[in-house]
Amino acid sequence: MLKGLIGRKIGMSQIFDEQGVAYAVTIIEAGPCFVTQVRAPEKEGYSAVQLGFGETNPKRLTQGEAGHLKANEIPPLRFLREFRAKDHGLKVGDKVTVGDAFVVGERVDVIGISKGKGFAGGVKRYHFHGMNATHGTSDRNRAPGSRGSGTTPGRVYKGSRGAGHMGMDRVTAQNIKVVMVDPERNLIAINGAVPGGKGSVVMIKESRKQ
Question: Rounded distance, CA 175 to CA 210, Å?
C-alpha cells in the first residue's frame, strides 16, 4: 500500500499515552485522497502515484486540471501531489485514507512550506554575528560586513547569504513519530512540529531515515 498522503495542518495539542507521558503533537487532517494518475516505468520512466486532496469548486481549477480529473471521473480537487512508490497496487480513481496508509508508532517525513517572515536582515535570517557593541561601533551592530573579494572577482557571488525574503521555503521535518491515527475523522497526530502555519497543506510520506 502507498505510504503517502496529502493533508492540512490543523494545529498543535498534546496527547498522553498509557504510561501518562505527554507528547506535544501536530494534528493533521490527512486525506481522504484520490489517485488521479499512476506513472509507470514503461511510459514515464519511473514509478509514482499522483494523489489529489481537497474538493473545491470546479471554477477554481484551470481547464487543464479540470480536464485531467474529469477524464477519470474524479471530483474537482484543489491540490495534486506526486509520491514515488513501487508495488503500490493502486489504480486511478482509488481512494486512500489515513487508516490505510499509516499506523501508530510509524516514522514519517512531513513536507510543507515554512511560514513567511517578510524581509529580514542577515542577523535574523542567517544568524550573522554582527559587529562589536563597543569600541566606537555606533551603527554597524547588525550590519553584514564585507562579503566580497577585492579586484578579483570584484563582485559578490550569486547565492551569497544576506538580507532578503525569509521563510516561504519548502521544508522537510524528518523521521518523526506517529502518535495517533483516527480514521473516522481523517486525523493523524505527529510528535513535534511540522512546517507551515495553521491551514497549510503538507505531504506525509514514509521516513527515509528509518
Answer: 7
